[in-house]
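Check my protein:
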Amino acid sequence: MAGLIAGAGLMIGLATSPALAHQAPTSLEGLPLLEDVAADAVQISPHVPNMGAHWAREGDLPVGPIYCVIEGHVVCVEYMFTMEAFEAGTDWLALLPGIETPPISHIDVEFKAEGIEPNPVPLYQLHIYFAGTELLDQH
């Protein structure tokens, strides 16, 4: 349980850190193209509002990286951490995004009590966004 609390605290700390002093992109241009960073990725979800479709390399599941893609552009990288792994005290060290990351717009941490496909168990999702909320709201 202590590991769960520490892990959740770390993610909350990341999600609430002060924003960097850069302007979030106002268009998809300039964001990485999925075909350039993970041409072998397969689609694992349809389009999700404000995120796009989710794509991943099969060998990277269930943790990630999972790529959120709108019109071919990677708008965020996602990782999924199961509650069971938190409770077991699992460490996730040196997670690689699989791409040269553009500046980070924001980070969201969400708890999904029922999980989400392809991982239908209680879990936390960590989304690292490169597109700002105004751009995402358009999709």
